[in-house]
Amino acid sequence: MVFIMKKQLSIVLLLALVMTSAQLMAQKAKHVIFLTIDGFRPDFYLDSEWQTPNLRALMKDGAYAKGVNSVFPSMTYPSHTTIVTGVQPVKHGVYYNNIFTLDGEAKMPYWQDSSIHAPTIWKAAKDKGMTVASLYWPVSADAPVDYNIPDIGGLGDSVRAQYSLPKGFYDEVKKEVFGGADKIDNGKNQNIAQIAAYIIKKSKPELMTIHVFSVDGAQHGVGRSGARVQQAIADADEAVGIIIKALKDAGIYENTVLMIGGDHGFYDVKKSIAPNVWLKEAGLITDLKAGDWKAQFNTVGGSAYLYLKDAADKATANKVKALLEAQPDSVKQYYRIITKEQLKKGGYNPNVAFALTAEHDASFNMANTGNAVKPGKGGTHGHFPDTKNIRTGLIVHGPGIRKGAVIAQMDLKDMTPIMIKLLGIPFSKVDGKVPAGLLE
Ligand SMILES: [Zn+2]
Fold first, then answer.
1. Are residues 59 and 168 in the same domain?
2. Number of domains in the chain
3. Which domain holds residue 362?
4. What pLDDT shows up at residue 1?
5. Residue 211 lies in a domain
6. How far is the CA of 38 from the centre of ligand 1 (A)?
7. Cα of 37 to ligand 1 centre, how many Å?
8. How far apart (Å, rounded) are the C-alpha atoms in residues 184 and 191?
9. What pLDDT is recorded for position 422?
């Protein structure tokens, strides 16, 4: 009898223990901060040639991925939208940075939350009563968050101020963080980190998404290597240091998971290809503005997308394919066709007949006159996400993360599943999953 009681008692104790640890698990990560360094490459933390002491310290004490597959195009806005939705572009609807128009009109960026046709992590966290903040994140104007300074492409500072949250926040930041400056140098990673630090100390948000972008600008300018890239990644690393310090000052570092990721890698550019020149020569483009065309490419960095005037016009699609295949090998080496089936399988733009991804350090441009092949310079991205250089990275650090975990390869669509698991919030069905072995 006594024995049985003891046994029952131990079961009760065991249950209590299990419950406590489950609750502890759930409570461990009270805050999640996702910082993207635009154009972030895994070698920035895997190779010691880069000045990234903060990143390396987080990596040593946390987990990291050797490579993260982007989306197609591996462009900033589609990538960032996949990070906050957990789904591929066909489901969230952000296909490029700029909305493509068939008549060649000036392009508007995708910039408002209403352009995202899938549930976001911001709303899910907000619905759970959490404090949510976002800084310079693409396609986030009007997002349901408490603090916001959106990335609004080239629409200008007044639009950015108008859409900052809470109302008047952009002016508040100028006054409180930058000593009354009339302009914020957004291109400086440390400045964005200072704004993040201000919000962290003020409101200790449970979820915060932050985007810094000078590493992207540097690589567009000079390619994958060079002093400018060194400086930009060192600045981004310093921004990470500023955020860590703010978390410590606010007393929440121990229960914050810090995720440092990116949106795409980079390729050098040595050639610039204008595929619409071939379409014009073949009579498939006469006058885009007048609507006199049968097929045209929308080129975005290292990729190009074939639109047909009549989407069912298979003969024209085949004609374009034949034009591409008829080029000499010296030209054909610069592109590879991504078929409609590949686009469908990956969950990419369904509105095009097929696409091109650049090879051998080529990039694409929109010209339809002049030479189709010209010298190019700097760096670019946008390529199909199946090659190493276009992969981005991820470092994760904090409670609930298995120390020393190394993820060989994962996808951008896996970021939302990780965040919802850590925050313990309900979310709709996603395309991604938490990588095995990442969490404790
Ligand atoms: Zn980017």
1. yes
2. 2
3. 271-376
4. 42
5. yes
6. 4
7. 8
8. 8
9. 97
Backbone φ and ψ for 129, nearest 5 degrees, come out as 80, 15
The CATH number of residue 371's host domain is: 3.30.1360
Q: According to the model, what pLDDT value does residue 20 have?
A: 44
Tell me, in angstroms, the distance from the centre of ligand 1 to residue 39's CA.
5
Residue 103 has a pLDDT of 86
CATH code at position 230: 3.40.720.10
Residue whose C-alpha is closest to residue 433's, from 399, 405, 407: 407
Residues 114 and 242 in one domain: yes
Q: Could you tell me where the beta strands, DSSP code E, fall in 139-220? A: 147-151, 207-212
pLDDT of residue 10: 56
Rounded Cα gap, residues 429 and 440, in angstroms: 23
Query: Can you list the residues of the chain whose pLDDT is less than 50?
Result: 1-4, 9, 12-13, 15-27
Residue 25 domain-assigned?
no
Amino acid symbol at 136:
Y
Cα of 272 vs centre of ligand 1, distance in Å, is 20
Cα(20) to centroid of ligand 1, in Å?
A: 42
Measure 264 CA to ligand 1 centroid, in angstroms.
6
pLDDT in tens, 279-290: 999 999 999 999
Q: At what angle do helices 415-423 and 76-85 cross, to 10 degrees?
A: 30
Q: Name residues with Cβ closer than 5 Å to ligand 1, which is an ion.
A: 38, 76, 216, 263
Token pair, residue 56, equals 């390396």
| Any domain includes 221 | yes
Same domain, 91 and 236: yes
Confirm if 388 and 67 have CB atoms less than 8 A apart.
yes
Query: pLDDT tens digits, residue range 46-93?
Result: 999 999 999 999 999 999 999 999 999 999 999 999 999 999 999 999
pLDDT of residue 105: 74
pLDDT of residue 44: 98
Question: Using an 8 Å Cβ cutoff, are 327 and 271 in contact?
Answer: no
Q: How far apart are CA 157 and CA 179, in angstroms?
A: 18
Give a yes or no: residue 138 inside a domain: yes
DSSP string, 9-69: HHHHHHHHHHHHHHHHHHHH--EEEEEEETT--THHHHSTTS--HHHHHHHHTSEEEEEEE
In which order are the strands placed within the sheet that holds 335-338?
295-300, 303-308, 355-358, 335-338
Are residue 36 and residue 132 in the same domain, yes or no?
yes
**Is the domain of 250 the same as that of 369?**
no
